[in-house]
Amino acid sequence: MSELPDPLSRRDRQQQTREALIFAARSVFAEDGYHAASLDRIAREAGFSKGAVYSNFDGKSALFLAVMDRNLELAEADRTDPFEQTTNPASTGHDVAEREGYPPAATQGFALATLEFIASAARDETIAPQLHQRLVAVLDYYNAIAQKARAEHETLAVSDVGKLLAALDQGAGLIQLAGDVAPDPELFNVGMRRLLDPARSVTEKESNT
């Protein structure tokens, strides 16, 4: 006779509830947008009452920030060297969505919801500092890429290169969201590599011709 597993502790149950709410919230935000998304629907999709949301998060903005945090964790795990990857970093979101069980359209939907949230949070003196922390974390992600692929004679600071990478990557994402014009992956990679190490980019181009 097999032994029954130990019952979950209160802390473990709460963690499972938070995870379920975050998973459901990402899908609802992606489908409805930030402003139109309701906590009632998020709770229902996760299999809980609305009270469960308020037991774990201060409100919709806190729940959205928790989803952003999860996305940042997944992106961190998927960080790659632009000299090794075959697609632009903006495609990472699609890869993460597929691996986590979200439909492909969820990546674009959540990106649009994020734009809504940023516009709202930037005007809120309580939420703005919390949003700033996440943006710093995003820059840290690009700084790590810049540090890993840093050219020997690079004169710009790692943080400066990181900001330029962020501007290129996030700017390309905005163009795609606004006009559904996807940057050509190869052209995007050329731009990323030239920004990180122009000399190495030229050498690679010559060796491939």
Automatic annotation (TrEMBL):
The keyword Mitochondrion does not apply. SUPFAM superfamilies: Homeodomain-like. The keyword DNA-binding applies. GO terms for molecular function: DNA-binding transcription factor activity; transcription cis-regulatory region binding. Residues 15-75 form the HTH tetR-type domain. Keywords: DNA-binding, Transcription, Transcription regulation. Residues 38-57 bind DNA. This is TetR/AcrR family transcriptional regulator. It comes from Ruania alkalisoli. The lineage of its organism: Bacteria, Bacillati, Actinomycetota, Actinomycetes, Micrococcales.
